[in-house]
């Protein structure tokens, strides 16, 4: 009978883990190019502003007592307004009402954003700190069909730069030829019913599109 030990799955092997900055740098034989460094701005350059104003979609990263969180945000292009070279305004449109991101901002005001533009391979990244405003005048500024956001994030910008196109190119994110049929993946109702057997997933899916379309704002 063989007594050879069963090898660990590769992801459980910690013997090659990188544990310090020197070890990390040793794994990469290239250093950042000058362009990858001087593309950083401490405020919103007019050319970077054009990216923000063209973007209909952003990912908001926050950090709270339970760790990190990312949240998709989207609306018509320019839904995040540039108030000035150091300030962004982001309305909190209707969602699932968990308000995870906002509760995180109360805990830690540091935020990060990634702006995506359909068809454009570069991604714009913004870091800063945020506060939550319920100013009636500010919320009114973002009214759509008479419906106001409950709050607006006022983001003080401290770093802006573009991410190169490699990730978008590798993923073919904007290539219609690789778009998936929604029916290939589990529906929201199927997932919810799998997690809670008493939940009526079929009824949930049947009403989902109409409910979402009626509650976009």
From TrEMBL:
Pfam families: PNPOx_N (PF01243). Residues 47-164 form the Pyridoxamine 5'-phosphate oxidase N-terminal domain. Signal peptide: none annotated. This is Pyridoxamine 5'-phosphate oxidase family protein. It comes from Roseateles subflavus.
């Amino acid at each position: 009978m063989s007594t050879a030990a069963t090898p660990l799955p590769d992801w459980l092997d910690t013997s090659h883990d990188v544990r310090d900055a020197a070890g990390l740098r040793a794994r990469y034989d290239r250093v950042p190019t000058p362009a990858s460094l001087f593309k950083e701005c401490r405020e919103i350059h007019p050319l970077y502003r054009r990216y923000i104003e063209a973007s209909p979609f952003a990912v908001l990263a926050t950090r709270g007592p339970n760790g990190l969180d990312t949240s998709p945000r989207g609306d018509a292009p320019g839904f995040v307004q540039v108030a000035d070279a150091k300030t962004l305004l982001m309305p909190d449109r209707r969602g699932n009402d968990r308000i995870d991101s906002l509760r995180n901002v109360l805990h830690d005001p540091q935020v990060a954003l990634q702006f995506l533009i359909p068809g454009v391979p570069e991604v714009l990244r913004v870091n800063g700190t945020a506060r939550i405003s319920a100013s009636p005048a500010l919320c009114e500024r973002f009214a759509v069909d008479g419906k106001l956001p409950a709050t607006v994030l006022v983001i003080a910008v401290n770093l802006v730069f573009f991410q190169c196109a490699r990730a978008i190119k590798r993923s073919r994110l904007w290539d219609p030829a690789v778009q998936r049929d929604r029916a290939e993946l589990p529906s929201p109702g199927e997932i919810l019913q799998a997690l809670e057997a008493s939940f009526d997933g079929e009824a949930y899916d049947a009403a989902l599109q109409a409910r979402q379309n009626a509650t976009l704002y």
